[in-house]
Amino acid sequence: MTLPKAVPLIRMAAPEDIPALPVIEAAADGVLIKELGNRALPAPELTTPVEPLFILVAGTPPQGFARVDEVGGQAHLEQLSVQPDFGRRGIGRSLVEAALDAARRCGYPWMTLCTFAAVPFNAPFYASCGFEEFARPGPALVALRIHEAQLGLDDLGPRIVMRIRL
């Protein structure tokens, strides 16, 4: 019998973790690019126009991370990335749960995110974490969606806004 591998400790990112995050994101984006028919994604630095509220990492060295920003007065899950070699072990879900807990402790009533509707490890995954499609986002999320569309993300597949009450 094979025992499941334990999820690594989820913690706030330390300065020494930051250089690893673009590497993790690029590796995870490789899986997403294949799912989207090998169409290129915009450069990550173009998609995050604000400073992060916090960044959580899984493991030492990091095997995955969750970046949370503040958008429209709400916590916003800007990025969730897990090294593909560590995928399907619960790391992504653990990062989402830790991000929700951290945002709740900061006093945010909602967490939002923008994602691809049809990619199995995007909207369906977030729905399994309790997020629901949010059809009428406020001005800040609308502005973020316009920014994403201008970057070409909407050309890669349908995108939606989702949210969860904290």
Q: Main traits of this protein?
A:
166 residues; 7 strands; alpha+beta; seven-stranded mixed sheet; 5 helices; 32% helix
- Round the mean pLDDT to the nearest integer and report it: 90
Helix content: 25-40%
Question: Uncertain segments of ≥5 residues (pLDDT<50)?
Answer: none
Which structural class matches the secondary elements? alpha+beta
Tell me the span between the first and last alpha carbons: 38 Å
How many alpha or pi helices?
5
Helix and strand pattern: EHHEEEHEHEHE
Shape: globular
Neighbour order of strands in the largest sheet? 1-2-3-4-5-7-6
Largest sheet descriptor? 7 strands, mixed
Assembly form of the protein: single chain
Nearest-angstrom radius of gyration?
Answer: 15 Å
Number of distinct beta strands: 7
Q: Bin the strand percentage.
A: 15-25%
Structure description:
- With 166 residues, the protein is an alpha+beta fold.
- The protein has five helices and seven strands; from the N terminus they run βααβββαβαβαβ.
- The chain has helices at residues 21-35, 44-47, 91-105, 123-128, 139-151, and strands at 10-12, 54-58, 64-71, 74-82, 110-116, 132-133, 159-165.
- The protein has a seven-stranded mixed beta sheet.
- It is globular and about 40 Å long.
- The termini are far apart.
What is this structure, in a nutshell?
The protein is α+β, with helices and mostly antiparallel strands and 166 residues long.
